[in-house]
Amino acid sequence: MTGRRYDRQAHLATLDPVADHWEIYQQLATLEFPWDMRQALGFALFRTYAVPSIGALLHETREFGARVQKRYDDTALLLDAVLEHSMASAEGRTAVRRINQMHGSYDISNDDLRYVLATFVVVPTRWLDRFGWRRLTEAERTATAEYYRQLGRHMGIRDLPADYAGFAALLDAYEQEHFAFDPGGRAVADATVELLLTFPPTNRVPKRLSRWFVRGLLDAPLAAAFGYPTPGRLQAAVCGGAVKLRGRAVRRLPPRTTPVRTRDLPEIRSYPGGYRVEELGTFPRCPVPHEETAS
Question: DSSP secondary structure string, 192-223?
């Protein structure tokens, strides 16, 4: 790999987007677009709170009250364990097992799980189309979809879309049908925004301005589902324009050679002494009988 900006894209184009999906997605997330991927995956999870069956359940767990930082860290670290080591590794299998144990403690529908997975595929891709220093290639979209198809399969999620277009269609249809205001979902959204405002460098900006900026990046249906004011044209233009400007600046930088790992980020604060993947997350018990999911 030389120091030219588009050399990694050329290298990834030589790989098979299905057989090499993990290698491709790992390089996209940790080397090619690490900042964009983190922001976009955060917005992906944020969107899921606008579905009342998801937002209300998350609020009922009380994890977004006093422990919102740990909830954020655990989610990021578990997903990163799979990303870093692959689903075929011991660490990846342990992380997926923990995710499944937590989900299995609640009565979550297959449709909701499938929608959440779709946000991980579609929201970052659309973010990069809008804000990234370059767009994903068709092969990179295929690899992204395949990476999450395999994650979904390990999570026992049924009826997974076959490709990126299928995930995009699923997401759009599900949001059109299910986005609605719920006080629990709004509370989870508010708690998440307040946490984001403590991350550097946002913590150096007045909170009122930071909230205005975050809400300026929301589309109208998402804002309405949370009961937030719909961003005006000026607000949307200023906020979106600032992130686009960042992408143009990044395009002029040399390619990153050291992968960004979630555990090294300053916003991950819950485990200053280190952690074990098998101890991440929550260990709730739920008396509700659950529908069997196919593996």
Answer: HHHHHTTSTTGGGS-HHHHHHHHHHTS-HHHH
